[in-house]
Amino acid sequence: MENTESAKNEEKLGCFYNGKQWIKALPLRALNNVAEFGNKVKKLGKDDPRRVTHSIKVGLALSLVSLLYYFRPLYGGFGVSTMWAVLTVVVVFEFSVGATLGKGLNRGIATLLAGVLGVGAHHLAALAGDKGEPVLLCLFVFLLAAASSFSRFFPMIKARYDYGVLIFILTFSLVAVSGYRVENLIELAHQRLSTIIVGSCTCILISIFVFPVWAGKDLRNLISLNIEKLGDFLQGFEEEYFEKDENEENVLVCQSKKPLCGYKSVLNSMTAEESLANFAKWEPPHGRFRFRHPWNQYLKIGAITRQCACQMEALNGCINSEIQASSQEFKKKIQEACTKMTFESSKALMELSSSIKTMTHPKFVIAHLKTSRMAAEDLKMALKEAQLEKTELLQIIPTTTVISLLIEILAYTERISESVHELSRSAKFRGVADSTAIVPVSDSEDSVPHVVLTVHEIALP
Question: What is the largest CA-CA distance in the chain?
Answer without folding.
Answer: 119
